[in-house]
Amino acid sequence: MFFLYGTPPGPPAGPAPARRGRRRARLIALLFVFPALLLLGALVVYPVLFSVGRSFFDASGTRFVGGDNYTEMFRDPATLKAIRNTTIWVVVAPALLTFLGLVLAVLVEKVRWATAFKLLLFMPMAVSFLAAGIIFRLAYDEDPDKGVLNAAVVSVHDAFQGTPAYPTARGRDGLLTRDADGSYRTTAAPGRTVTLPLVGVLPRDLPKNAAPARPAAARKAPPGELRGVVYLDFTPGGAGRPGRVDPKESGLPGVTVQAVRDGSTAASTTTAADGSFRFPGLHPGRYTVKLPASDFAQPYQGVSWLGPTLVTPAIIGAYLWIWTGFAMVLIGAGLSTLPRDALEAARMDGANEWQIFRRITVPLLAPVLTVVFVTLVINVMKVFDLVYIIAPGPVQEDATVLATQMWLVSFGGGDNQGLGSALGVLLLLLVVPAMVFNVRRFRRSQR
After folding, report:
1. C-alpha angle 239-242-246 in degrees, rounded to nearest 5
2. Rounded CA gap, 148 and 136, in Å?
3. What pLDDT sits at residue 7?
4. In 10 A of CB 314, how many CB atoms?
């Protein structure tokens, strides 16, 4: 039988060949993973270990100082301010982004052009932090002619409050008396015409409807009425006489003039196109004709977005512009997986949209919201580019966070890499717990 059909099969393979097969598979897997492990060690593990070791040495790196750098870190006012600002970032930015992402993700579902809207909001993610910092540095410029935000603020303010008539004007010396509050005055009685000469008016501030002042100055005032003219006491070419209304001199329209007597304003008016004004029906006596300080106040310049008070909120605003699309897309992906039958059942039971959002949508999205929030917390702890680019030099210290402080101490003039390494270790210790939490939650969701 054996000769007819061949040799009988051998005994089953033992455990040794199976172990050799497993070892060979592990070796092959290790060979494929080795380049990635090499890069990970060179770019992550080695810098971390080197920074930890460097944090125990002085600025020169030659003398071991133990924990002195960590002690100095918490005594340095600049570092304490960086920790405070980082805390503000961690508390404010992720919460706002998660809330905005949730609201926009829910609203986008009800928009007809949802894809285009998502694309529009996600586009800032394609802009580098350097470019975004330059964009917002210009947008926050205090000059309304450059900064778009201050241009909008100034426009709204001037629409409601108006603008000063002539911010650069001043009264002619020796003819008008200047008070401490910046106003100008002279005295006159009803039945007289008084001239109020001003100088220093820029050509751009002279209204187009301004008319020659001489005809107004030549008019006589009837009894019981006080007349006058506010004019630019300057003749092009220099042929005029100071204090006299010459033929080529222009009136100044839009100037507020007050007649004051016994400390109270008896009458108030605004000059016409030729600079003339009149106060009819005054009682006999001497009056103080006053040009209030509001005529010469400086124009409203807007908000100091990059000043010491608002620089951190301003930079957080730029960060929101970049990352809102990211939060919206992630939350929107989670929203698309929600069971629609639960939402429809709630609507059939009479729940309104707000109740559905608060009691069904948000609880079901809690895992996604947590992942988005923790991811943003990790990101804001490492923020550097926006703070360094947007904050001007004089307020750099007011806006500094741990990442920028670490760079400034190590390379930006401090030249103390021992203290900078200690700051880097502190930043690592703050980031690692959030990373571990995120990884564990991700693994639980995968299971």
Report:
1. 55
2. 10
3. 52
4. 24
Which residues are within 8 A (CB) of 275 and not within 5 positions of it... i.e. 6 or more apart?
210, 211, 213, 216, 229, 230, 231, 250, 251, 252, 253, 255
Beta bridge partners, 64, equal 57
Please tell me the predicted confidence (pLDDT) of residue 317. Answer: 94
What is the rounded CA–CA span in Å between residue 373 and residue 100? 12
Entry pTM: 0.76
- Among 363, 274, 318, 297, CA closest to 129: 318
Q: Which of 253, 188, 274 is nearest to 225 (CA)?
A: 188
Question: Structure tokens of 245?
Answer: 């209304």
8 Å CB contact between 104 and 330:
no
The answer to whether residues 266 and 259 touch, using CB atoms and an 8 Å cutoff, is: yes
DSSP string for 197-218: EEE---GGGS-TT--BSHHHHH
Local mean pLDDT, 10-residue blocks, the chain (447 residues): 50 66 85 89 89 89 88 89 93 94 87 81 87 92 89 87 82 90 92 92 86 88 91 83 88 93 91 93 91 88 90 94 91 85 82 84 88 91 91 89 90 84 90 84 72
Q: Determine whether 135 is exposed, middle or buried from the number of CB atoms within 10 Å of its CB (0-12, 13-18, 19+).
A: middle
The answer to whether residues 193 and 214 touch, using CB atoms and an 8 Å cutoff, is: no
Length of the chain: 447
The correct answer on CATH 1.10.10.200 for the domain covering 68-152+305-446 is no
* Residue 371: predicted pLDDT: 87
What is the phi/psi pair of residue 370, to 5°? -65, -45
Query: Could you give the angle at which helices 311-336 and 77-108 cross, rounded to 10 degrees?
Result: 40
Alpha-carbon distance of 157 to 355, in angstroms, equals 39
Domain boundaries, the chain: 68-152+305-446, 170-295
- AA identity, residue 151: A
DSSP readout, 173-194? TTTSEEPTTS-EEEEE-TT-EE
